[in-house]
Amino acid sequence: SQLNGVTDEELLAAIDRHAGIDKDLDEARSLRIPLLRQLITIKLREGNVISRHYKYVDGTSFAAPIVSSIIACMLEANPRLTPQQIKRILIDTAERVPEIEVDRQGWGVVAAARAVAGALVQNPDESG
């Protein structure tokens, strides 16, 4: 991490340059440097801050934007897809997670590459 490799004198400026990556770091900016270093170490260990452009997130609130972006790619590949065809392709190409209850995973993990490939071969006249 770029934050982990800076000197104490550069740390606050580095946090400012990367504002918005992590809310906790933004709010903790007023802490003493040793406490900031501890927070950065915890964040890196937890894998929450990956880089300036990427942050690890999870939860259902991230499902909609992820699936929406995959649907956009599917429609780019085949603009004539119907909503029903898109749904069917997403369900058919999802990957089940072994040893996880069906109630906890729905149809499984969305498989972006397989969904786009499925969109390419979908006949627009087929309902489904």
What does this structure look like?
The protein is an all-alpha fold and 128 residues long. The chain has 2 domains: 56 residues, no CATH class; 62 residues, no CATH class. Helix content is 54%, strand content 0%. Helix 4 runs parallel beside helix 7 and helix 5 packs across helix 7. It is elongated and about 65 Å long. The termini are far apart. The relative contact order is 0.11. The model has no long low-confidence stretch (mean pLDDT 81).
Q: What's the gist of this structure?
A:
The protein is built from seven helices and no strands. It has helices at residues 8-17, 23-27, 33-46, 63-77, 83-93, 102-105, 112-121. The mean pLDDT is 81.
From N to C, what is the helix and strand string? HHHHHHH
- Average pLDDT reading: 81
Class computed from helices, strands and strand pairing: mainly alpha
Unreliable residue stretches: none
| Helix fraction bin | 40-55%
- Measure the end-to-end span: 47 Å
Q: Domains counted in the coordinates: how many?
A: 2
Radius of gyration: 21 Å
What does the largest sheet look like?
none
Q: What is the strand content? A: under 5%
How many strand segments?
Answer: 0
User: What gross morphology would you assign?
Assistant: elongated
How are the secondary structure elements laid out?
Blueprint (H helix, E strand, L loop, with lengths): L7 H10 L5 H5 L5 H14 L16 H15 L5 H11 L8 H4 L6 H10 L7
